[in-house]
Amino acid sequence: MVRFSLPGKKLVTPGDDDDASSSSGSAIEGPLTPDAVAATDSSEASKKSRYWPSEAEVAAVLERLSEQDREMCDAAMANRYLRATGGDQKHAAKRIHDTLEWRRAEQPEHIVCTACRANHKSHYMQVVGHDLTGRPLIYSCIGLATNRDVEDNRKHMISTFEQAIRLMPDPAACPPGSRPVESWCWVMDFHGFSIRDCDPRLAKIFLNLSAAHYPERLGTFFIVSAPTVFNTLWRAISHFIDPVTKQKIHFVNFHAKKDNSKLEALLARYFDADTCHWLLREMEDNRDKSLALSKAYSYPDLSKLASEGRGAPDVEAAQRLRRQKSGCQQHDHLGSPAFLEAVAGKPDLLLPHLQQLSLNDAVDAQA
């Protein structure tokens, strides 16, 4: 597996303090009250979040697997499923087997979002950076997505999750005695959310995928500017959400023409200054109708950057065009400055089908 290293950045070990702070009242604002999010068995959730399996427990789970499953399951995966099941070795082994059967059948690392290939405006959910611990940062904006087909969204979500895993730092780069990066951050901007988006099937896809096949992968989840209508969907799905997962959720607001110092202060706990600025600028651009109408995430541009490097003429031209469409003329919605710098010239950091996009473009250009 390709592993990602952040240039010039010392990795900080992701800790359990994320979970504890996320449910605090000071971190939550918006249409949902802190009590609506934190109304869980907090003692049980805290106990689960602190649990870390021993090497003997991990080895015992691996012993329960068939030889075929052990070829695809390493100690880190067994550790995650043990944490997800609260140390139940039999249940962890069963869930690992189910996931490996799913991976053999679906081959998620090769899943292509055919909707985005046909129309780049279909979805707006992609990896755009990393947090201070090295966890991949996923950003999505509901208002910029035009495709609401359940299967298309499932494929896109899987592809994004697999890309995030590919961009996780190399465990060998972790300081001695620290834990490897295994999870991601997700900033979900609800700008543009309306009654037509209150489809519980889409929420169920996320919950099922996360629980069944990507356990312990969601580190922190920011829900930005959720409108009142979101309460209907939240009431439908909240009782299906694990208490530990609920502790990882921040409800926050972005104000297009007001002070965002509270949101900025919260983001600064997780991201460097450039990434914080990128997120705030991205949210601001996405609320400008004149900019958002023509905005789409270009995976071919990302692939060209990775395959050709920052200095390539086509890459520079594409970046200038993206910046021209931004209100500040400097914002590149492809990703944060550190992310673009790290990906440039490194095609192996992208999933195979994203690498292939630039190769296809090159062939078409020569034809």
Automatic annotation (TrEMBL):
| Residue ranges occupied by any CRAL-TRIO domain in the UniProt entry | 127-292
The domain of life for this entry's organism is Eukaryota
Which stretches of sequence are listed as region Disordered? 1-50
Q: Which SMART domains match?
A: SEC14
Pfam families referenced in this protein's UniProt entry, alphabetically: CRAL_TRIO
What Gene Ontology molecular-function terms does this entry list?
phosphatidylinositol transfer activity
Name by which UniProt lists this protein? CRAL-TRIO domain-containing protein
Origin species? Chlorella ohadii
